[in-house]
Design brief:
By secondary structure, the chain is α/β, with parallel strands linked by helices. The chain has 24 helices and 21 strands. Helices cover 41% and strands 18% of the residues.
Length: 592
C-alpha cells in the first residue's frame, strides 16, 4: 500500500470513528415492521412514553419493554424525537407505508372499466370480479404496480382494462401521448392485435417511431391530422433498451411491461437502460407471473420502477440481499467474493409486507378460479441412468451443468417409454418439455407424424401454426416443446398431461410450463409428470426446493415446498395401466 493510500485509509477511519461517536450520543431504538399497518419500537423510554400516551391504540408490552403502534404515527414519532437514532427499515419506507395505511382507511370504492369493447368486432368481454378488483387496486396505486397473479388469471385483460380506465380518468392529460408496451418476442404480435382491438390503429415499432415525418411507415406521418389521438409503441425489451436514448419520456402517458421478470438482473444492459427511463414515467404497469425465481436481488429493479422512493439501491441490497460476513470470509477470491456479496436473503418477512402493501398484486388460481385438481408426480425409474455414485465434496456449477448435458442423451429412451405408457392408457394429448435439442429431436422423430416439435430454431409464424395443429388436429397427439422457448404465452388446455423429460434450474419456468394446460378453459383434472431418471435430476430437484422456500417467505410462492406424489416406473412392466388414473372431468371455468 502506497503512502497516499495509507493516508486515505487513515482519514476514512477517522471519519468512521466520528460518525460512530455521534451515533453513540443519540438514544438508539430498534424499529420492526410487524405488518403493513403496525410497527414495534424497543426499548421504551420516557420520551416514548410521553409520545405514545397521546396515541390511540398504541400498546405497551411490559415483558420486552416495547410499544406496538400504527405505522401512520411513525413520522410524528421521528419529529418528536429528533435526537434519536432509529435502527430498522429505512425511514422513507416507513413513511410511505404510513401514507398508504392512511389512504387505505379513507379509500372508497373507485370506478373502473369492467367490460372491454372490441373496436374491430364489436364483441364485449366482461371482467370477472377478481379481475375488476385487480384493476381497482392498480388505479388506487396510481397505475404504478406489479400485477403478479398466477399464470392463467388474465393479467392481459386486467392490464387492458387498467389502461382504458387511466385513459378515461385522465383524458385531457393523455391527449396526443403514447402508450409504451414492452414484451418478449413471443408476445409482441399478441399485443399488437390487442392494441388494435381496444386502443387505436396508430401502432408502431421503435424503428417506425424514430423515422422522420416524411419517411414511409413513419408514425409521425400516420398521425398527421390525428395528433390528438393516442399512439401505441410496441416492441421487444432488447429493441427498446437499445434505442432508449431516442425515446422521449414526456411523450408517453404509461408503460406496460409484459413478462417484466426480463429485467430481474439489475446489472444487465436492458435493466441499466430501461429502469432510469421508466422511473420518469408517471404510470408503469408490470406484468409477471414469476416475479422472482430464487433471490431478493431479482426484485430490486421492480422496486426501483414501482416505488423508487422507498430505498436507495444500497439500502435495499444491505437490508435484504447481503450475505453474512462469516460466509463471505470463506471465499478467498476477491472477484468471486464481490459477486456473492448480495446473493443472500435476509429480513424476508419484512420484504413480504412491503411487497404486499406497496408493490404487487399476487393471487393464485385456487382463490380465483374453479379449476380441477393439479397433481404432480415425482417419477423415479427402476433403472436410473448416468453416474451411480455421488462424488465426494461439493461439485461446481460448471461440473453440474456438464453432467446435466451429458446425461440428456441417456434419458431419451426411458422418457419415450414413459410417454408410450401414457398413450397406452388412453391419454390423447400429451405435452412433453425438455431442454436439450438432441433429446427433443429424438422424441419427435420417434413419434413422427403424430407429434410436433417447437424449439428456438422454429420461426414465430411457424410456431403458431404448429401449436394450432396440436390444439385442433386429432392425429397430432404429442407436443414436444422447449422449456426455454414455450413455457409462456401458449394455451394448451386441449391436453391434460405434461411430461418433463428434463428438469430446469428455476422452478418458476417449470411452473409456467405446467400452466400451459392448467388455466382458464381446462375442463379436466391435470397431471404433471417429473421424470427423475438420473442423479443430476435429484440434485436439481433439491435446488428447486430451496428456491421455493425463499419464494414462499416473500409471498412469491403459496407453499413452502413443491409437493409431489411418489411414483416408481418400470419400463419392463407388462401391466402398464396400473400406473395411471383414468381421465376425470371437473367443473371448469369458461373465462377466456
Amino acid at each position: 500500500m502506497s503512502v497516499a493510500e495509507k493516508e486515505i485509509q487513515s482519514r476514512l477511519q477517522e471519519a468512521r470513528v466520528k460518525i460512530e461517536s455521534a451515533h453513540l450520543k443519540k438514544k438508539q431504538y430498534t424499529v420492526s415492521l410487524l405488518d403493513s399497518k403496525t410497527l414495534k419500537i424497543h426499548p421504551s423510554t420516557d420520551a416514548c412514553f410521553d409520545f405514545f400516551t397521546n396515541v390511540s391504540n398504541a400498546e405497551y408490552n411490559i415483558d420486552n419493554n416495547s410499544w406496538v403502534f400504527g405505522v401512520e404515527h411513525f413520522p410524528l414519532l421521528v419529529e418528536s424525537m429528533k435526537n434519536s437514532l432509529f435502527i430498522g427499515p429505512p425511514l422513507a419506507l416507513l413513511s410511505e407505508i404510513g401514507k398508504f395505511a392512511i389512504k387505505e382507511s379513507q379509500e372508497l370504492s373507485c370506478s373502473v372499466v369492467t367490460t372491454l369493447h372490441n373496436r374491430k368486432t364489436g364483441k364485449s368481454t366482461s371482467l370477472y370480479p377478481y379481475q375488476v378488483e385487480g384493476v381497482r387496486k392498480i388505479k388506487k396505486h396510481n397505475y404504478k404496480l406489479l400485477l403478479a397473479d398466477d399464470m392463467g388469471l388474465g393479467k392481459t385483460i386486467q392490464a387492458i382494462a387498467a389502461v382504458l380506465t387511466c385513459m378515461e380518468e385522465k383524458k385531457a392529460w393523455i391527449e396526443g401521448k403514447g402508450l409504451l408496451i414492452i414484451a418478449t418476442p413471443t408476445l409482441v404480435k399478441m399485443w399488437k392485435e390487442e392494441a388494435k382491438s381496444y386502443f387505436t390503429d396508430v401502432i408502431c415499432t421503435v424503428a417506425e417511431y424514430q423515422r422522420k415525418p416524411a419517411a414511409p411507415q413513419s408514425v409521425k406521418r400516420v398521425r398527421v391530422g390525428r395528433e390528438k389521438d393516442i399512439f401505441v409503441l410496441i416492441d421487444t425489451y432488447d429493441r427498446v433498451s437499445g434505442s432508449i436514448r431516442e425515446l422521449d419520456a414526456s411523450e408517453f402517458f404509461m408503460a406496460v411491461l409484459d413478462e417484466s421478470s426480463s429485467l430481474k438482473t439489475p446489472t444487465s444492459q436492458r435493466s441499466v437502460a430501461l429502469v432510469p427511463f421508466l422511473q420518469k414515467l408517471q404510470h408503469v404497469l408490470l406484468l409477471s407471473g414469476t416475479p422472482s425465481s430464487s433471490r431478493p436481488i431479482e426484485l430490486l429493479t421492480t422496486l426501483q420502477i414501482v416505488c423508487p422512493a422507498l430505498y436507495t439501491q444500497n439500502e435495499y441490497l444491505e437490508r435484504y440481499c447481503r450475505v453474512p460476513d462469516s460466509r463471505l470470509s470463506s471465499i478467498k477470491n476477491y472477484a468471486q467474493r464481490e459477486r456473492a456479496k448480495y446473493s443472500g436473503q435476509r429480513n424476508l418477512d419484512e420484504l413480504k409486507t412491503v411487497l404486499d402493501a406497496l408493490v404487487w398484486i399476487r393471487r393464485d388460481k385456487k382463490s380465483c378460479l374453479a379449476l380441477g385438481i393439479k397433481e404432480r408426480y415425482r417419477v423415479s425409474f427402476v433403472s436410473p441412468v448416468g453416474p451411480a455414485v455421488v462424488k465426494r465434496g461439493k461439485e461446481s456449477p460448471k461440473e453440474m451443468f456438464l453432467e446435466y448435458s451429458e446425461v440428456s442423451i441417456q434419458k431419451i429412451e426411458p422418457a419415450i417409454k414413459y410417454i408410450e405408457a401414457l398413450r397406452e392408457c388412453g391419454r390423447k394429448k400429451i405435452v412433453v418439455f425438455g431442454y436439450h435439442v438432441v433429446l427433443l429431436e429424438c422424441i419427435h422423430r420417434h413419434f413422427s407424424e403424430q407429434s410436433i416439435l417447437v424449439d428456438g430454431s422454429v420461426a414465430e409464424k411457424r410456431r403458431s401454426e404448429l401449436i394450432s395443429q396440436f390444439q385442433t388436429a386429432p392425429e397430432i397427439e404429442i407436443a414436444v416443446l422447449s422449456i426455454a422457448t414455450c413455457s409462456q404465452g401458449i394455451n394448451l388446455v386441449c391436453a391434460r398431461d405434461v411430461v418433463f423429460a428434463e428438469l430446469y434450474w428455476n422452478f418458476t419456468d417449470l411452473e409456467q410450463a405446467e400452466d400451459r394446460i392448467y388455466r382458464n378453459g381446462q375442463k379436466e383434472n391435470v397431471e404433471i409428470h417429473y421424470l427423475i431418471i438420473s442423479r443430476v435430476d435429484e440434485t436439481i430437484l433439491s435446488l428447486l426446493q430451496r428456491k421455493v422456500q425463499m419464494q414462499h417467505r416473500i409471498g412469491a410462492a403459496k407453499k413452502r415446498e413443491i409437493e409431489f406424489i411418489e411414483r416408481q416406473f418400470d419400463p419392463g412392466q407388462t401391466q402398464i395401466s396400473k400406473y395411471f388414473k383414468a381421465p376425470q372431468s371437473c367443473q371448469g371455468d369458461e373465462n377466456v
